[in-house]
């Protein structure tokens, strides 16, 4: 008899396999057949649990980031940012960067993937970032009329994209910490 509910361990195993396949073959070549074979599960089970390839991929990405930004509140914007940056090591950042590079191309060809990424990953992160910034404004650390507030997400995404393009290097903690101290905080007047 088929299981209707996967154990958390089995779910983690499936998500890890999806991310490994994504890194190996890219989004377009990733198939539900390949995931089923890699995880010794049936395609029917995969479709019953996740409905579609974009949903499976995005849920795997989200599962990989267990801490949401909303849960971080150190009492200062600087503390919050460093807590966010400190939750991922350089090795994981490099893997995440490789995944995002692979997905950034696929997003243009696959509206379903784009929508799933927006709904499940990007919007919650933006909401969490907005909350961190709103708390900083409420504490008086950032002026509410600071024009840079609406560009913080652009700055952070830009840091990831630019490091690879400009220096042909992956983003790491040292770079991000320096970037936040040199660019984001001064722009916010922190």
UniProtKB/TrEMBL annotation:
PROSITE patterns: HTH_TETR_2 (PS50977)
Classification via InterPro entries: Homeodomain-like_sf, HTH-type_TetR-like_transc_reg, HTH_TetR, Tet_transcr_reg_TetR-rel_C_sf, TetR_C
Matches recorded under Gene3D superfamilies: Homeodomain-like, Tetracycline Repressor, domain 2
Alphabetical keyword list: DNA-binding, Transcription, Transcription regulation
DNA-binding positions: 31-50
HTH tetR-type domain sequence ranges: 8-68
Keyword presence, Transcription regulation: yes
Domain of life: Bacteria
Stored SUPFAM superfamilies: Homeodomain-like, Tetracyclin repressor-like, C-terminal domain
Pfam families xrefs: TetR_C_11, TetR_N
Keyword DNA-binding: yes
Protein name, entry field: TetR/AcrR family transcriptional regulator
Organism of provenance: Streptomyces sanglieri
Lineage start: Bacteria, Bacillati, Actinomycetota, Actinomycetes, Kitasatosporales
